[in-house]
Design brief:
Radius of gyration: 25 Å
Strand content: 5-15%
Structural class: alpha+beta
Largest sheet: 4 strands, antiparallel
Order of helices and strands: EEHHHHHEHHEEHHEEEEHEH
Mean pLDDT: 82
Low-confidence stretches: 1-15
Number of strands: 10
Amino acid sequence: MMVAGKMLCAHATLSENLCVTVWPFVTKELTTTGIKNSVWYTVRAGYLFQQYVCEQYVRMETNNIRFIERNQGALFAEAYQGLVDHINQQLHIEEPAPVGRRMILPSTFTGGPSYMKQSYQDAMTIVRKYGKPDLFITFTCNPGWPEIASNKGNHAVAGDRPELEARVFHAKLKQLMSDITENRVFGNVDAYVYTVEFQKRGLPHAHILIILSDGNKLLTAEDVDDVVCAELPDPADENNQRLFTAVTSHMIHGPCGQLNRDSPCMAEGICLKKYPKAYSAETVYVSDGGYPTYRRRDNGIEALVRGHQVSNEFVVAYNPYLLAKYDAHINVEVCSTVKSVKYLYKYVFKGHDMATVEVQDRNEIKK
């Protein structure tokens, strides 16, 4: 018997094991605590293990889609189709004759169009109640974290253990959100939303939007300087050694521009991210006036990064406390303009990369 995508054995008793779906079974199999030798060899298989993980995920998603397909009546799919037909009639839109049967993915299907739209609309409802977001944070997994490096195996790279990366990143993200909401690194938080994505090279990263309480809003340039920095710390200061290493390892863009015209961010000789940034003796910030110009002093401090000497022009904005604690890419941006609200929330809930495939009739005999 299958209930909401979960397979159960109706005849099972307390002394018998219940049947489980693919997800808990594979999760248990990939747990390396007390792991069997056969499974340990599996997780050390490199690209074959990555293929195994992908296939198991496809199995899980196929089970979910099959359940949705077989229960369209319970999901009121016909009502959805009737609404679409009514709207098309009102707008005088003629749809081509459909091939096959339309299947509606409900908002409970993670990653589907309805799921992303509902998430965006929920986020905008939060904005309507609590106001515009104050901070936009991007937190990226660091494959060099000790929790990953010490458990991935001697001859493996971090990408060979995607389940380990995901597990460690999830734990770090929970701690980061606790620092923001409970420990109040930026002050009292009224509301927040975040989403987790996976880069093409496999590293998970989170986009986080924070709405601060009225008493903790960033209203002046001094307020911005208290939480965001866009400069290299002084390496001569012994207290800055850990932070300096973290900045040069995770928070340097490129280098690009004249230093490296072959950088992936370059298009027609210009950096798509607008680096290198201009020097600024102080932060220029107007509340509700858009993104601030962070302080980037021409103080002569430089660092050797990826074979190039770089200065404050290439530093990505960060929070010193969070960067030193988590030793990962944590970009912190102040976003106080109303105009950025929809863009930021749509960016957070843009969904996964997709491709459109068109099937055409190439029957030359009929032609």
